[in-house]
């Protein structure tokens, strides 16, 4: 039986990996790439693995009906990696939409 992609598992795996390597980002400034709700999970997995970003959730104000604040997935890392991941995200989402 195959395993379904699960963001909670991805977050837990990355936390475990970070604890094992204990690399810590030190004094390096970190940035967040906000993942739009509805983003294809396989694209998120690819971004996390390719750019070595840390997936976390963060509460943010969202302007939708009956909701003022919502937990949003963000990928955290150094500026250069976050910028490269953002470019990758938009290219992959565009390709995915065009193939539907």
Q: What is the share of helical residues? A: 40-55%
Largest sheet: 3 strands, antiparallel
Proportion of β residues?
Answer: 25-35%
**Ends apart, CA distance between termini:** 27 Å
Tally of separate helices: 3
Radius of gyration: 15 Å
The total beta strand count reads: 3
Assembly annotation: single chain
Characterize the structure shown.
The protein is α+β, with helices and mostly antiparallel strands. It has a domain at 1-13 and 29-77. 46% of the residues lie in helices and 26% in strands. The protein is built from three helices and three strands, in the order H-E-H-E-E-H. It has helices at 7-21, 41-51, 79-98; strands at 31-34, 54-64, 67-77. It has a three-stranded antiparallel beta sheet with strand order 1-3-2. Helix 2 (41-51) packs antiparallel against helix 3. The longest helix is centred in the C-terminal third of the chain and has 20 residues, at 79-98. The mean pLDDT is 82.
Question: Concise description?
Answer:
The protein contains 3 helices and 3 strands, in the order H-E-H-E-E-H. The protein has 100 residues and is α+β, with helices and mostly antiparallel strands.
Topology, pairings included?
Elements: H1 7-21, E1 31-34, H2 41-51, E2 54-64, E3 67-77, H3 79-98
Antiparallel strand pairs: 1-3, 2-3
Helix pairs in contact: 2-3
